[in-house]
Design brief:
Elements: E1 9-12, E2 17-20, E3 30-35, H1 46-64, E4 68-73, H2 80-89, H3 93-110, H4 126-138, E5 142-144, E6 150-152, H5 170-183, E7 198-203, E8 212-214, E9 225-229, H6 233-242, E10 247-253, H7 257-272, E11 278-284, E12 287-289, E13 292-293, H8 304-308, H9 313-321, E14 329-331, H10 333-352, H11 357-363, H12 368-375, H13 384-393, H14 398-417, H15 421-438, H16 443-446, H17 453-464, H18 475-491, H19 495-507, E15 511-514, E16 520-524, E17 527-531
Parallel strand pairs: 3-4, 3-10, 10-11, 12-14
Antiparallel strand pairs: 1-2, 5-6, 6-7, 7-9, 8-9, 12-13, 15-16, 16-17
Helix pairs in contact: 2-3, 4-6, 4-7, 6-7, 9-10, 13-14, 14-15, 17-18, 18-19
This protein binds one RNA strand of 74 nucleotides through helix 1, helix 5, helix 7, helix 10 and helix 14.
RNA sequence: GGCGGCAUAGCCAAGCGGUAAGGCAGGAGCCUGCAACGUUCCCAUCCCUCGUUCAAAUCGAGGUGCCGCCUCCA
């Protein structure tokens, strides 16, 4: 294929195909990106993890490519689910939302997901929603019903359905929408002109504590209206308030394509008269659990906290990145275990390099331009990082990116083993930068280890076979003596004794390794404690 | 009923017209008292059928089998 191999390309749901990415900004620099955030009525689950890790990688990648990204992720804190849950729990919706928002924030941090630049909350934008709705009514794209609700008039937007059906052909869209209406599960709401029309504002009883004053009073009752925003209006209002009339990227889970994002498009474009509301619409695939769709009714709903209790953030990220973000992904123990094995091996080897935080920071690239300058003139075979970038540029092909990462890692190990430290260091730099762009956390490399002093002491006392003042000795010193005792056992070919000591150390979480050069090391979690 | 997606080694999973990435697991060798670590090597012709093409896992048609959306959901 003679396709030009440069530049970021992304799958745009709006066009139904992969297309070159070019921001609206005439300078091509600024990128405004909005991701649909969580409805904070419960703990975040694996679906959220997948979604926000995916867009975290995009955010990191765009930034790395040199774009000036403004990343906004909203928080939906007004919604029927929140109200119902709060009622069950006997707390206010605001308390419930705040608690779950904090929990969500913790989960994201634990997953090493970067915080967005802004996190607007729906309840802070009621005014803007009301303003937008009034504009829509004035333009004939919405109508109030006698109960004081307001609906969007789908008939006023001939290209309604263009996201779901990925076409601008209005005749075709009309046919699709007719089919949709015919097959729709019926839930007729009083006053709607068409079953496709959707709520912008829902009337609630006057002075309901979870309502806001509106300009649409129920006819014949009072002069004051009262209600709550419709399900889709908040995103349109927040985008309008934070970014203005158009944005570059709007992303979220594939389940939001219809009706949520379709309706957002209809509202926003009818409101401002500008289109496209968002130039690129990106969607990540679903999460299944052990082959089944994750859902409450199936009882296989896994929270992030639950999974993090078993697998670390890097494991979850690696697992997700081996799959393409648009494909469905199946969380199951076999796959997670394989990912964990990779993380253990890879980070274990990195840890043996004994790199400090300062040393690591020194070799991390800031921009792709820096890398290009560095790798200029190298062929693709050697310009590992450039190859990595090229693969990532094709709709975020993280699986191929990881393949390059692994190949580079193997080469680094080889150079290291051969004593070519300059080359090893060069490759190390490529490796950690790839990991950095993908959002892996390096924290575990800097964690010290805490030695089980009491256990070491009792083992030492047992082996020494006599009273010692070992309580005053450092655990490291005792370990050295234990190693020496084992060495004596080995020298006299007392293998049983030597193996017993190894077993006892293993039991308290320490690994004893005989090296090729005749030395013996004791490690904990892959980190060398003593070498004798 | 309408619309869409997916089927690649034991498992996970890229590739989407030019002769099968990567990971996990597994096997063999080196190293080793054993083990671990390290390292080298091995491990698929892409659900079926018929087409298009010099060339198909990749395109078309028809099967079969999974799955999703159309209702709140990331």
């Amino acid at each position: 294929m003679a396709e030009q191999a440069n530049g970021l390309r992304l799958f745009n749901t709006l066009q139904g195909q992969v297309e070159p990415f070019a921001p609206l900004d005439p300078d091509g620099k600024r990128v405004n990106m909005y991701v649909c955030g969580p409805t904070v009525y419960d703990d975040a689950h694996l679906g959220h993890a997948r979604c926000y890790i995916t867009w975290d990688v995009l955010y990191r990648f765009l930034t790395f490519l040199g774009y000036d990204v403004k990343y906004v992720r909203n928080v939906t804190d007004v919604d029927d689910k929140i109200l119902n849950r709060a009622k069950e729990r006997g707390e206010t919706p605001a308390e419930l939302a705040e608690r779950n928002y904090q929990s969500f924030t913790e989960d994201m941090a634990a997953l090493n997901v970067l915080p967005p630049d802004e996190e607007p909350r729906a309840t802070q934008y009621i005014r803007q929603m009301l303003d937008g709705i009034q504009v829509l009514i004035a333009k004939g794209a919405a109508y109030a019903t006698p109960d004081g609700s307001v609906y969007f008039r789908v008939a006023a937007k001939p290209d309604y359905g263009k996201l779901k059906y990925a076409t601008q052909d209005t005749a075709l869209l009309k046919k699709h929408l007719d089919d949709l209406k015919a097959g729709a599960r019926v839930e007729v709401e009083e006053g709607k002109e068409s079953p496709l029309d959707f709520a912008l504002w829902k009337a609630v009883p006057l002075e309901d504590p979870n309502g806001w004053e509106s300009p649409w009073p129920p006819t014949q009752e009072t002069s004051k209206g009262w209600g709550r925003p419709g399900w889709h209006m908040e995103c349109s209002a927040m985008n309008h308030a934070v970014f203005g009339e158009q944005i570059d990227i709007h992303a979220g889970g594939a389940d939001l394509i219809f009706p949520h994002h379709e309706n957002e498009i209809a509202q926003s474009e009818a409101w401002t008269g500008q289109q496209p509301f968002s130039k690129y619409w990106l969607h990540n695939g679903f999460v299944n659990v052990s082959g089944e769709k994750m859902s409450k009714s199936l009882g296989n709903f896994s929270t992030i906290k639950k999974v993090l209790a078993r697998y670390d953030a890097n494991t979850i990220r690696y697992f997700l990145l081996t799959n393409h973000y648009r494909m469905p992904v199946d969380f199951n123990d076999e796959a997670l275990q394989a990912a964990e094995n990779w993380v253990d091996k890879t980070f274990g080897k990195l840890k043996k390099l004994n790199i400090t935080r300062e040393e690591l920071n020194k070799v991390l690239f800031k921009t792709a331009a820096e890398v290009k300058a560095l790798e200029q003139g190298l062929n693709l075979e050697d310009s590992h990082f450039s190859e990595f970038l090229h693969l990532m540029e094709v709709d975020l092909n993280t699986a191929q990116g990881l393949a390059i990462l692994n190949r580079t890692f193997t080469k680094m190990q080889l150079a290291n083993a051969q004593g070519d430290y300059a080359r090893a260091m060069e490759l190390f730099q490529r490796v950690v930068n790839m990991m950095n762009v993908l959002g892996f956390s390096f924290e575990s490399l800097f964690e010290g280890v805490s030695l089980p002093a009491a256990e070491i002491h009792s083992l030492y006392a047992e082996l020494a076979g006599h009273q010692t003042n070992s309580a005053e000795q450092a655990p490291e010193t005792m370990l050295e003596e234990i190693v020496t005792m084992r060495r004596e056992a080995k020298a006299s070919k007392n293998w049983a004794q030597a193996d017993a000591i190894r077993k006892q150390l293993t039991d308290i979480g320490l690994q004893i390794l005989d090296n090729k050069d005749g030395t013996t090391t004791v490690e904990k979690d892959g980190l060398e404690i003593v070498r004798v």
